[in-house]
Each structure stands twice: as structure tokens, then as C-alpha cells.
Amino acid sequence: MEIANALALFANFVLVPGTAYGAQLALGALGVTLIFGILRFANFSHGELMSFGTMAVILATWFLQGQGVDISPLPTALLALPAGILVAIAMSLATDRFVFRFYRQKRSNPIVFAIASVGVMFVYAGLVRIVIGPDDQSFADGARFIITAWEFEEMTGLDEGIAIKQSQVVTLVVAVAVMTALFWFLQKTRSGKAMRAYSDNEDLSLLSGINPDRVVMIAWIIAAALATIAGTLYGLDKTYKPFIFLQILLPIFAATILGGIGQPIGAILGGFVVAYSEVMVTYAYKKFLAYLGPADWAPDSLIQLLSTDYKFAVSFLILVAVLLIRPTGIIRGKVIG
Amino acid sequence: MIRRILVTIAAAIVATTAFAAEEVKIGMLQGFTGPTESLVAPMVVGGEIAIQEISDSGAFLGGKTLVSVRGDSTCIDAAAATAAAERLVTSENVVGILGATCSGATTAVLNSVVRPNGIVMISPSATSPALSTIEDDGYFFRTAPSDARQGQIIADILERRGIESAALTYTNNDYGKGLADSIQAAFEDKGGNVTAVAAHEDGKGDYSAEVGSLAAAGGDVLVVAGYLDQGGKGMIQASLDTGAFDKFILPDGMVGDSLTGHFGDAIDGSIGTNPGTDSPGAEMLIEVGMKNDFDKGGAPYVPELYDAAALLLFAMQSAGTTDSAVYKDHVIKVANAPGEKIFPGELAKGLKILAEGGEVDYVGAGAVELVGSGEAAGAFRETVIKGGKWETVMYH
């Protein structure tokens, strides 16, 4: 019983939130890694592209809610997602046409692209703040919980409950569906194969008649869709606030580099590793250990490796460790530089 | 022609000087420029209404008239505040100072001007706990409560409700840290157990890690010393989502309708505290303001400055002199019981009672009660959330 309590506690505070967060990071990292694979630069504007797409989803959600459309218990935002994705795709294609294509034709150094993407990031951030403002926006509706901590305790008779939010389940289901579709596209379709060939060796793929403009366009379309989905799921699960998309860029890049740059499977792995590390390193294990130890025994301190203030430092630590020990990432990817 | 103008001017100067000699000058040392400028503009009007009311009554120290002399204490520039206070005391010869606005400027003026010159100063708005224990030779008072007061009020509430352990989280700035420290100290003094203290940063998307570490420490309630539209809300959301806490203690930064609007009855039973009083004085000041074409009688710190001015002048009336060294001992006497209760707009009545040797208990707009070394006890309202609405329980 005590062991069951300890596991329930761990699941409630580490496993469940970590899994949902990991799926959100993985979707974000997939977009970054895809752009790196095809266009060969670190796209810093990806975080704000997430924000921009999510903003479009929120506006569409409000419109649908205003029209009385309701798919409860599911959140209305899922219905608004396609509209948001289209807006984000239009935005990223326009950005490519007016910013990145110029540098591509000049065959600029990747660092020039990266810096240009920082500029794009600021433009997106400004646009978002002009349209929807800098404040919190809540757009989640439908049922909040699949099962609350209290209901779980009633059901199992344990002292510790596991709360599972609907947004966490939605996140996981959508993420798995999107990832499956992406891998099917990359492995089985002609365009997907062309993209992989282009990523693998640009010159050879051009010789075999692959149209580079088309590959680049598809890459942006997929990246924008992934960004919008990741941002919307994060917003549904936590909150939508324009400021957080600069913060979330760091764990996303850590996940990308950890998994191996340009490697979609690596991005997913990296997302989960970073998410679990963040949650586990900052979790206080006092109560967990108290359940496992003898009766009436509890450590005095909180048994916390790192204060929650340093949550974002975990991403930094992972980044530094990866770059020192295995610069190619878990799955051998490209090395930045 | 020129000579005639000069003569007129000279005559005017002589006349003004002669007239001015009859006047008693009060230093209005406030942060007219800097971060508090919008706050100070209505405050000063409120204070000067009190000065005018007493001056017009004709009952002040046998009919002396009063004039307010302004000086700019800024908020953050201690050197500017000291220079302004020095000017008021040495070249304007004020008999008492109303100020300064911010705690930092107040401390600087207290150390470099008030104590060396031996002049009474009453601040309407400096709330730093450090000013409670600073050495002031008995010359410094304030009509705003120390930030530490709320910590004691919250500890009292927890004790009265039989809550023995609490986890504590605060927004990571001076306000949050100071409030959290005072709550922890007061609660532990009463034998309560603070299981864990953790800061939270405002403006983040996710607070589940912070709540997770607090939940590991346990506690009957979670005290959230933060802001209701910022991280404080996020902490409550994450607590409810994980089932870690369902009852919250909410200091002033968290009390607002947007919190109950967002969470509804999910946080029923949570307790809030914020400055507030059921004394009729606040309403009366608004009426007094209206009579003087001033519609901001209820603005922040306007009641406090009105009260500060009234207290300063009542103390002089009670002592029968404008000598700071003498009337400083009368400030607490006129502020507290026993005596006739005096509300805004009744200052003339209070002056008459004092002139006849009677006693007054100045209540004013902010239910003034000076405690400790001469600072307002502060009036706080205790609320509880019932059915998703704030309901007033009592006043402290």
C-alpha cells in the first residue's frame, strides 16, 4: 500500500505532467529539427511562430464560441486548429519569400540565416502583441479533468491521488497522431523521400531532379503546422501568454540538439528526456521517500536536487553536457558549426 | 514712474513679509516627481484640505493661519529628498513635515534632517517594516501600517481558525519576500508550522514544479503572497490541477474579483485579507473632498495624508506650541483613546476641545490607531470565498 502511494504520488507530480510537457516539447523540437535538416540553420523564430499560430487558433476559437459551436467535452480549440495552422503556414511562407529566400539565393552562411531568424522572431513577437496583447488569454473549454486526484483516491482507497487532465490526454493523443502522420509522410510518400534526400545530400538530390523550392515550401508548411499544434496544446494544458514562447525556445533547442540535429526521432526522444529531467531534478522527494521508508519516518529536508527557480537551468546543463560529451546527439545528427 | 513702481513693490514685499510672520508653515515633502508622481498629486490635495480646514477654523493656537510649503522628496533619490527637507527646515522654517512618500526617501530624511534638527515628521505612505525599529528620537510617525502588520493579521487568522501548518509561496520581489517573511515569523511565533517556503516567478506558463515541491512538504493550506493576475493565479491553478492544495490564504495582492471570476467556487473556503475598514471616516472624507471640488477623496493614501496633517496640527494644539520637541509627545495622545472621536470635516470641533483642555481620539478617514513607536495599526478586512464570491467576515 505504501509503495502504491509512493508510485501514485510520483505519477501525479512527475510522470503525468512530464509526459504531457515532453510531448509538447517534442512537437516543437520536430519543427526546429526539420527546418535545420532542410534549410540548414537554427530557426530562432520557431518559438514565436508557435505563439503566432496559437494566437490564430485562439481568435478562431473565440469566433466559434461566439457562434455557439460546442464539441464538449472536447475543447473547441481542436476545431479551430486547422484555421490556425493555415494562418501560420501563410505567415511562414510569406516570411520565407521575403526574408529567407533572399539569403538562400545569395548562398549566405548559416549564421546569417540564424541571425535573420532572430529578427523574424522579434517581428512575430511584435505582431502577436499588437493583435492579441501581452496578457494571459484563456481559451480552454470543455471538461477539465478525466479524473481528479480526489476521485482517484475514492476509487482506489489510496492516500495519494493521480489527477489526469483532459488537456494532457488530448496532448498525448494529438502528438502521437501527428508524429505518426509525419513519419508516414517522410518514409512513404514521394515528397517525403525527396525531403530526406535533400536533407541528406543537397547536390546529389538536385542532380536527381528534385525541385528545391518545393522541398523548402513543404518543410515550412510542416514546421508551421507542428508549431501551431505544439503551441495550442501547450496553451490548452497550461496557459497562453506571449512572453513564455521566448522561454520555451531554450528547452526546445536543448531537445533538438540532445536528440541529434536533423533527426525527427531524436527530436521526440530529446523532448521527453528534457521534460522528465526538468521535472525530476526539481521535484522534492520528501513525501515520496517517507512512503517508502519505515513508518513515521520522514527526512527533514525536502530532498530536492535543484530549487524550482532553476528549472530552466536544467535545459542549459543538458545543452552543455551534450555539446561536450556527444556533440552529435543521441541519434547521430549534424553538428552545428 | 519707475520710482513709483519700485515703491509699490517694496511696500508689497514689506506687507507680505509682515503678513507671513503671522503664518505657521507646514512642510509638504512628497514625491512630486518620479515613480509616485501620479499617486502624490491627489494625496497632497487631501493633506492641504486638512491644513486649510484647520487654518479657516480660526481656532488653531489662538487664531494662527497655516500655509503648506511644498518640497519634492522624489521617491528613489535620497540626496534630492534630503536637500528638499533641508530647505524646508532651514530656509522656510517649517514647524513640522508631512512626508516623505517612499520608504527609502523617508529613511534618508529621518537620519539626515529630522533627527539633527529635531523636527516632527509624519509619513502617510512609507510602509517598510524597517521603519518600525529605526532610531527616531520620538520625532517620526506614520499613518500607514507597516507591511509586517499583514503578516501578524494572517497569523492571527490562521490561529483563530485552528490551522496548524501552512506552505508558503511568494512572488519573487521585495513585496512578496517581505510579506512572506513577516507571515512566517508571525505564524511561527504563535507556534504554527511553516512546512515549506518557495518563491515563484511571475509570467511563466507552468507552475506545476513549484507546486510539486510545496506539496511534498505538505500543509493544511497554501499561503500565496503574489498577484492575482500573475504567478499567484498560476500557483492556485497548478495546486487545484494536481490536487495538492484546495484551500488558500490570500493576502492583499491576491484579493480581487478576477480571481473568483476565474476559479469560481473551486477555491471556496479560501481566506483573503486586504486593507479595509468599516469606519465611516472614509466616506466622510470623500464628502469633505466634494465640498472642496476634489473628487479623489478615496484615492490611495489620500486618507492617510489627510489624517497625517490633522494629527500633526492636533498635536500642536494639544501642546499649545509649534515647538517639535514639545508637541512630539502629544501625537499619540491625540490619535488614540480616550477622548471625543473626531472624523473628517470635524477638525474645528477637535481644536476647540483641545483648546479647552479636553481630550480627543482622532479617528479620521483611516480609523487611525497608533501603535508601537507611532505607526498606524492599519485596518484590514478578512474575507472568505463562498459560492465563488468574496464575503466579508470581519475587520481587524
Describe the overall structure:
- The complex is a heterodimer of chains A (337) and B (396).
- The mean pLDDT of chain A is 91.
- The termini of chain A are far apart.
- The longest helix of chain A has 38 residues, at 2-39.
- Chain A is globular, with a radius of gyration of 21 Å.
- Chain A is mainly α and 337 residues long.
- Chain A has a two-stranded antiparallel ribbon with strand order 1-2.
- Chain A has a single domain, classed as Orthogonal Bundle (ABC transporter involved in vitamin B12 uptake, BtuC).
- Chain A has helices at 2-39, 46-66, 77-105, 110-132, 149-156, 166-188, 190-200, 202-207, 212-237, 244-247, 249-259, 264-282, 286-292, 311-325, and strands at residues 145-147, 164-165.
- With 396 residues, chain B is α/β, with parallel strands linked by helices.
- Chain B folds into 2 domains: 2-144 and 280-376, 3-Layer(aba) Sandwich (Rossmann fold); 148-269, Response regulator (Rossmann fold), CATH 3.40.50.2300.
- In chain B, the strands form 4 sheets. Chain B has a 7-stranded mixed beta sheet with strand order 7-6-8-9-10-15-16, with helices on both faces. Chain B has a 5-stranded parallel beta sheet with strand order 2-1-3-4-5, sandwiched between helices. A two-stranded parallel sheet of chain B has the order 11-12.
- In chain B, strand 6, helix 7 and strand 7 form a beta-alpha-beta unit.
